[in-house]
């Protein structure tokens, strides 16, 4: 990784990457989109171009070329287009990545998208839930302070950052009779 990020990944994690399904992951850092691109290599929906395009010219084009769907989360019509993108992409490719909270500014404990259970049941796809973190070499978790320029500047001055998978689990779509039951169990995974 060009931002000085190393990663700790088990063989089990690598096998889970190959699985078809809806991959979901907590969203706590601006680095997450780079993880989506480099580690998961699965298309997702994102609003990150609104932030990063200001300091990384042509970033939106890079995301689009990879297959990500850029949208304005404040626009209802664009949110519907994003959902339809996920529905279509997961039906055809059988693999999609979603950040359930939708934003680095909203904790996954405060908002967890109901679309995941709906997509899982509709397209008969299992959900693979990932909990990730970024740590500095001394095992201090890296917290995003909601200032992108300061965050990137600190990245260039800091020690090596380690991307780590803290936990992961798979939730079969046919294990749940109702979307709401699946939604509750997925929320619980991120609350523990």
Account of the 3D structure:
This protein is an alpha/beta fold and 192 residues long. It has 8 helices and 7 strands. The strands form 2 sheets. A 5-stranded mixed beta sheet has the order 1-7-6-2-5, sandwiched between helices. Helix 5 packs parallel to helix 6 and helix 6 (115-123) crosses helix 8 (179-191). The two termini are 29 Å apart.
Task: Explain briefly what this protein structure is.
The chain has 192 residues and is α/β, with parallel strands linked by helices.
Which tags fit this structure?
192 residues; alpha/beta; globular
| Spatial shape | globular
Q: Determine Rg (CA atoms, Å).
A: 16 Å
Tally of helical segments: 8
Q: Would you tell me the overall average pLDDT? A: 80
Main beta-sheet annotation: 5 strands, mixed
Low-pLDDT segments: none
H-E order: EHEHEHHEHEHEHEH
Helical/strand content category: alpha/beta
Number of strands: 7
User: What is the CA–CA distance across the termini?
Assistant: 29 Å
Q: Please list the strands of the largest sheet in the order they lie side by side.
A: 1-7-6-2-5
Helix content: 40-55%
Note the beta-strand portion: 15-25%
């Amino acid at each position: 990784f060009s931002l000085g990020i190393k990663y700790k990944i088990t063989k089990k994690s690598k096998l889970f990457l190959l699985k078809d399904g809806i991959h979901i992951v907590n969203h706590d850092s601006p680095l997450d989109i780079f993880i989506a691109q480099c580690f998961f290599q699965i298309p997702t929906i994102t609003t990150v171009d609104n932030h990063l395009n200001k300091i990384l010219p042509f970033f939106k084009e890079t995301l689009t070329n990879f297959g990500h769907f850029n949208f304005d989360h404040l626009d209802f019509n664009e949110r519907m287009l994003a959902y339809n993108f996920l529905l279509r992409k997961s039906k055809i490719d059988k693999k999609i990545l979603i950040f359930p909270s939708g934003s680095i500014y909203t904790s996954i404990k405060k908002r967890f998208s109901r679309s995941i259970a709906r997509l899982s049941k509709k397209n008969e796809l299992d959900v693979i839930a990932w909990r990730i973190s970024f740590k500095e070499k001394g095992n201090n978790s890296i917290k995003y302070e909601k200032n992108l320029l300061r965050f990137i500047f600190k990245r260039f001055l800091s020690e090596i950052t380690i991307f780590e998978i803290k936990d992961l689990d798979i939730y079969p779509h046919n294990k749940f009779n109702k979307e709401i039951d699946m939604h509750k169990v997925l929320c619980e995974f991120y609350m523990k």
